[in-house]
């Protein structure tokens, strides 16, 4: 039985967001641009391509994304999640029954929104 995000428990949603963030980090570590793009939200993928004017799988590897360590914290609020890793913070959205990375390479700025290397338009 498939559960929508509204029916899934908080632990299931956290687990799903964590798994998507780790898939993103593993693809980054392996320099697998196609796998990185597969985990990106559609509008984020489109912004990467629009900005670089080359295919997503090539463009995303040119971004200044930190290789992060383990997961330190996962916050889920409805269809949105923030995954704090040792060296990065990712923001995700639950889209079409999957967690997708909306923004990556994000660093906090006191009193202001995060600054992200990759994000949707």
Task: Describe the structure in your own words.
It comes from Streptomyces pactum. This is Lipoprotein. The chain has 121 residues and is an alpha+beta fold. It has 4 helices and 5 strands; from the N terminus they run ααααβββββ. It has helices at residues 10-29, 33-39, 42-52, 56-62; strands at 71-77, 80-85, 89-95, 98-109, 112-119. Strands 1-2-3-4-5 form a 5-stranded antiparallel sheet. It starts with 9 loop residues before the first helix and ends with a strand. The relative contact order is 0.19. The mean pLDDT is 91.
Briefly, what is this?
By secondary structure, the protein is an alpha+beta fold.
The SSE order reads: HHHHEEEEE
Q: What is the CATH architecture descriptor? A: Roll
- CATH names the topology as Nuclear Transport Factor 2, Chain: A
DSSP summary: helix tally: 4
Overall tally of domains: 1
Work out the radius of gyration: 14 Å
Q: Roughly what is the average pLDDT, rounded to an integer?
A: 91
Give the spatial strand order of the biggest sheet.
1-2-3-4-5
Distance between the termini: 34 Å
Task: State the major sheet.
Answer: 5 strands, antiparallel
Taken from the alpha-carbon principal axes, the silhouette is globular
Q: What is the percentage of strand-forming residues?
A: 25-35%
Q: pLDDT below 50 for ≥5 consecutive residues: which ranges?
A: none
Structural class: alpha+beta
The number of E-state strands comes to 5
Helicity range of the residues? 25-40%
Note the topology.
Layout: H1 10-29, H2 33-39, H3 42-52, H4 56-62, E1 71-77, E2 80-85, E3 89-95, E4 98-109, E5 112-119
Antiparallel strand pairs: 1-2, 2-3, 3-4, 4-5
Helix pairs in contact: 1-2, 2-4
Protein name: Lipoprotein
């Amino acid at each position: 039985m498939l559960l929508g995000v509204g029916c899934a428990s908080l632990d299931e949603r956290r687990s799903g967001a964590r798994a998507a963030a780790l898939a993103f980090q593993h693809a980054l570590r392996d320099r697998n641009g196609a796998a990185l793009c597969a985990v990106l939200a559609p509008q984020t993928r489109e912004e990467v391509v629009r900005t670089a004017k080359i295919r997503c799988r090539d463009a995303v590897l040119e971004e200044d994304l930190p290789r992060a360590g383990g997961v330190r914290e996962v916050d889920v609020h409805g269809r949105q999640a923030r995954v704090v890793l040792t060296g990065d913070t990712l923001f995700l959205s639950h889209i079409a029954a999957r967690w997708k990375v909306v923004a990556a390479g994000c660093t906090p700025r006191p009193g202001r929104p995060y600054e992200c290397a990759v994000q949707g338009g």
